[in-house]
Specification:
2 domains; Spore Coat Polysaccharide Biosynthesis Protein SpsA, Chain A; seven-stranded mixed β-sheet; alpha/beta; globular
Length: 467
């Protein structure tokens, strides 16, 4: 039959067939990648490696540090959350060796006022006002804070021992600072887990971060560290030795150790640690109360904001990362960088799969209407379909298990129900990231496409202040 003689139904059937092949095969490839991580994690667990440590919280809460600690918090229009964040950190981290460097811009008076309100006269807080109008990039703001820290070191004649990164919305754990201080005796870079807070007012947009971080920081990062691959920094709850940051700053020959042209300077910084000979440790620890020592925060509560944040991650990690960091470093390193950079392809495959669902629905309705179905899957395609179904069931089970471990079985069930929503966010973020990346290739500037943070829910602030 000539193609021109095909009916619209036959054209739809052809599109369905091709999309099924494309999406089905790539889903199996992705599932094999995830299964390899699952098996590696299980093997490590059986060998007693990478397990969550058990600690006595009291020994890390408020204990004197081995040296001075600088906490860098860059901010732009964070007046709704920053005061509570700083006040909470000062309350649960009473150590005299602590200095908080909170950065704002000269055209952001509201954030400056929030810094002063959170500090409430505590001399351990230093507000650093950027000499340029904001926003520039987060890395540029961090470099300004780093420069202020260096100035203070020269003034007092003593260097800091540890530099910790946090965001304006973070609720820190009371044991985190002491634990990081101790852990730096073993590694030059230590990353604690991040635990997004479930939000009753946003059970889809905000809460879908819970399962993603629970699985990534409960399994994937553990495997990555144990395999010897470089660890990306999350930008919050991560500590660096002062010496390794100084080495990176000298190697970059710039204003500081943070890449001003990158949208994910924290990710790049983590990967650079290994290149300068430093060691990294993804540290999971629980107190005797069962609570994970982690950074807790409320993530974006709307679909547009979630897409905007994840688009920045995809742009910086998958697209800029390929350009700026390349590959190399052995099999484990190449594998993990490939996983980091699959975001745009994942978005494309997911879009193809959802288009396939629409076409399948149309053809199913046509069959019910008596128009017939031009083709039926058979042979290899049936194998692909059943394999994808099995892979989806396994992934849903893993998502439930890791989410339930941190948030309870009810949230684990909701995590499985949120899978389609998370896929839609990934599709939209992939499209936005690719468009933004193309604009930079055509001469556009990299800007701080930051996430807007609303006020902390009262319950979160109260609960963490009491922790």
């Amino acid at each position: 039959m000539m193609l021109g003689a095909w009916s619209p139904l036959e054209w739809l059937a052809l599109a369905e067939h091709e999309l099924l092949l494309f999406a089905g095969v790539f889903f199996i490839v992705g599932a094999a990648d995830e299964l390899a991580v699952d098996l590696a994690w299980a093997w490590l667990w059986l060998k007693g490696r990478g397990r969550t440590l058990r600690i006595h919280r009291a020994s890390h809460c408020g204990a004197p540090l081995c040296g001075r600690a600088a906490v860098l918090i860059p901010a732009w229009h964070e007046e709704q959350v920053l005061a509570a964040t700083i006040a909470h950190a000062l309350a649960v981290w009473p150590q005299a060796e602590l200095r908080i460097y909170a950065g704002c811009y000269r055209n952001d008076a509201a954030t400056a006022q929030a810094i002063m309100a959170g500090a409430a006269g505590d001399p351990r807080v230093r507000m650093v006002v950027h000499g340029r109008d904001g926003p520039t990039t987060k890395a540029d703001c961090l470099n300004r804070l780093y420069a202020a820290m260096e100035t203070d070191e020269r003034r007092c004649g003593a260097r800091f021992r540890m530099v910790v990164l946090h965001d304006a919305e973070d609720m820190v754990d009371s044991a985190a600072l002491g634990l990081l201080d101790t852990a730096l005796e073993r590694a030059e870079f230590v990353q604690l887990p991040v635990l997004p807070e479930p939000q009753a007012a946003s059970p889809w947009a905000a809460s879908h971060y819970c399962e993603e971080f629970a699985e990534a920081h409960g399994k994937a990062m553990v495997v990555r560290g144990e395999l010897g691959a470089s660890l990306p920094a999350a930008g919050v709850g991560c500590a660096f030795s002062r010496e390794v940051l100084g080495t990176i700053a000298r190697d970059m020959r710039g204003p500081g150790p943070f890449s001003v042209d990158s949208l994910t300077e924290d990710y790049e910084l983590g990967l650079r640690i290994k290149s300068v000979g430093g060691t990294a440790w993804f540290l999971r620890a629980r107190g005797e109360d069962g609570r994970l020592v982690a950074t807790r925060a409320c993530f974006p509560a709307s679909l547009p904001q979630a897409v905007r944040q994840k688009a920045r991650w995809v742009h910086g990690i998958a697209l800029q990362g390929w350009d700026r960091l390349g590959w190399g470093g052995g099999i484990a390193e190449s594998w993990m960088r490939l996983r980091d950079r699959r975001g745009p392809l994942t978005a494309l495959v997911l879009f193809a799969a959802y288009t396939l669902l629409v076409l399948a629905g149309v053809l199913w309705a046509a069959g019910l209407a008596g128009l017939g179905r031009p083709w039926q899957p058979s042979g290899l395609l049936l194998v692909v379909l059943w394999a994808n179904l099995a892979c989806f069931a396994w992934r849903a089970a893993m998502r439930f298990a890791f989410t339930a471990r941190e948030y309870g079985p009810a949230e684990g069930i909701r995590a499985v129900l949120r899978l389609p929503y998370a896929n839609v966010v990934a599709i939209m973020a992939g499209r936005r990231a690719t468009t933004a990346y193309v604009r930079t290739l055509l001469g556009g500037k990299v800007r701080w496409d930051k996430t807007h943070h609303q006020a902390h829910p009262a319950g979160l602030v109260v609960a963490k202040a009491a922790a």
